[in-house]
Amino acid sequence: MSATVTLAHVAREAGVSPSTVSRILNGTANVTPDKRARVEAVIRRLNFAPNVQAQALAAGRSFSVGVLTQDTSPYYGETLAGIERGLEGSPYHPLVVSGHWEAAREQEALDLLMRRRVDALIVLGGVIEDAALQAVAARVPLVAVGRDVSGLSERCVLVDNRAGIRLLVRHLTDLGHREIAFIGGPEVQQDALERRLAFEAALRECGLEPQAGLMRPGDYTEASGERAAEELCRSDLPFTALLCANDQMAFGARLTLYRLGIRVPQDISLTGFDDLFAARYATPPLTTVRQAIAELGQVAAEAVLRLLAGDHPQLPRYVPELIVRDSTGPAPLLSH
Amino acid sequence: MSATVTLAHVAREAGVSPSTVSRILNGTANVTPDKRARVEAVIRRLNFAPNVQAQALAAGRSFSVGVLTQDTSPYYGETLAGIERGLEGSPYHPLVVSGHWEAAREQEALDLLMRRRVDALIVLGGVIEDAALQAVAARVPLVAVGRDVSGLSERCVLVDNRAGIRLLVRHLTDLGHREIAFIGGPEVQQDALERRLAFEAALRECGLEPQAGLMRPGDYTEASGERAAEELCRSDLPFTALLCANDQMAFGARLTLYRLGIRVPQDISLTGFDDLFAARYATPPLTTVRQAIAELGQVAAEAVLRLLAGDHPQLPRYVPELIVRDSTGPAPLLSH
DNA sequence: CTGTTAGCGCGTTCAC
DNA sequence: GTGAACGCGCTAACAG
């Protein structure tokens, strides 16, 4: 059990003071070339690696940015990948904790991150009150993704859910669909509510009236999409298109349609929202709205770095893009 | 900018010594009820949260376990979810870093984790030399998943790739398939090599001879499966089943088959390996081998906790299970 | 039971 | 340019 090498060991071995070693490590001041060479040699020989905890304690910064995520769905997986990429090259590293869409657990996660003295925070969604986020934002730079935190709007990376849903509805009505069913997300979440409202509004814009019987609640999971689609198909209300509030539910719905022998898109057109990586590999490939999730994560990370550097970064507004694939087609004559 | 509250503040405010506060925090020793009550009140009032860095430095343990993962594929996503679950309830938290399947970056990741003084390590796959892992294993408890590290075999959570592949091949031959194509993984990875060898062996067991023309290399990504399937279909060698070394490549291959108008399973039977969450939602649902990935992660995490507690946990051996879904069916008369 | 004294490993003044 | 001394916030002997 080789005892850990410390900066002091290096100093002694190199015949210099600890401060000198520290200076070389951080480039804090000039050091004679030969001394520097000597120290660097010792560092390599002893395989010295500075204790980050000690550095953090002494310098007052931990070089870690806390990330409050929610679950392990592909959605957050892709966002985290973006964050990792955004932090790459910087001395900062992400410390990820899940809140599981429960205010209490989100608060615990935030507490944990604060106790670990993260230098900054990235918040992905969540249902915790804005006040709690404002509180932590008062202590460290904070950027939120997919959620508009009151009082911190200029620190939020958002997509325009309204516009995205409208693109889908337009696309479907252009194809001749008039009876469009809808599976929504958990409305405790901002975006889920926005998408449902946007769906109803877009329908009206197209001269159609939302029908309660064609709208089912889901919770953004595949299983809920599967179930909701079942209910919709069992009811006798006819529809030729099924718009799901996110891709995962569309995947679930796809399974139900497959089981019932309903063809996509010949019998029913199917759409999602998010453009998860998997959407392209669905059968048939899923028509959806691109959120560029990974990019959102990366942008958030970069914004955090700027904040940490004392900047006041301008967060870009993201406009969703319609991605037409094979899961949508002309409306059939209503028959099933 | 409310200055951070320290243990010393609490002590002063409560009229006790810092040690007493520390004792109450850690339950290190008995304290008079009234003193304890007084201190706890102050803690709540001041909203005191101990600095984990300082605790780590003083106590010599950081309460974090490092996780070396590789990429952000669903495979690792599910494993990480399992690890998180396994650590839940314990005072330990995961610190995740990606190695991107490059020895150099994996080494960097390990260095980073050691500098952060993680108390233990969980290694997911990777291509770094065993020696490097043995080196870190000498400093902290280490558990590896999906990789057999020489000298640390009793610390490795493994699945029997041979057995899994054999289940698939048997399943296919039982269905009458004789011409089975194969898309393999990157053979720098242990499991990919094992699976390819197992495929050839299983074929022979069934009295069939592996045909080089029906075997294509992939890299475990959807895109590589897509491409490899294209090549296979363009070649004039007939086959009635396509066995992919993992689910993701099967998803990619599925897209190619869809594009070419080849029906699954009527024209070609398709199989994967891993049983990712998404396998059940493929169209048609994918026949595959269950690895219980999330469980593997959880088991690894629990093993690490036991090691940290001084135990010598016995890691269970995982036997893969064949999951028959709709992507496989009787072999058609060769025609396409 | 509880306060006092030392560090944990490093960064950072401050003088030299 | 460089070393000595001090402090970051907390835990752990050590006495009492």
Automatic annotation (TrEMBL), chains A, B:
<dbReference type="InterPro" id="IPR046335">
    <property type="entry name" value="LacI/GalR-like_sensor"/>
</dbReference>
<keyword id="KW-0805">Transcription regulation</keyword>
<feature type="domain" description="HTH lacI-type">
    <location>
        <begin position="5"/>
        <end position="59"/>
    </location>
</feature>
<dbReference type="InterPro" id="IPR010982">
    <property type="entry name" value="Lambda_DNA-bd_dom_sf"/>
</dbReference>
<protein>
    <submittedName>
        <fullName>LacI family transcriptional regulator</fullName>
    </submittedName>
</protein>
<dbReference type="InterPro" id="IPR000843">
    <property type="entry name" value="HTH_LacI"/>
</dbReference>
<dbReference type="InterPro" id="IPR028082">
    <property type="entry name" value="Peripla_BP_I"/>
</dbReference>
<keyword id="KW-0238">DNA-binding</keyword>
<dbReference type="Pfam" id="PF00356">
    <property type="entry name" value="LacI"/>
</dbReference>
<keyword id="KW-0678">Repressor</keyword>
<dbReference type="InterPro" id="IPR001387">
    <property type="entry name" value="Cro/C1-type_HTH"/>
</dbReference>
<dbReference type="Pfam" id="PF13377">
    <property type="entry name" value="Peripla_BP_3"/>
</dbReference>
<keyword id="KW-0804">Transcription</keyword>
<feature type="domain" description="HTH cro/C1-type">
    <location>
        <begin position="10"/>
        <end position="35"/>
    </location>
</feature>
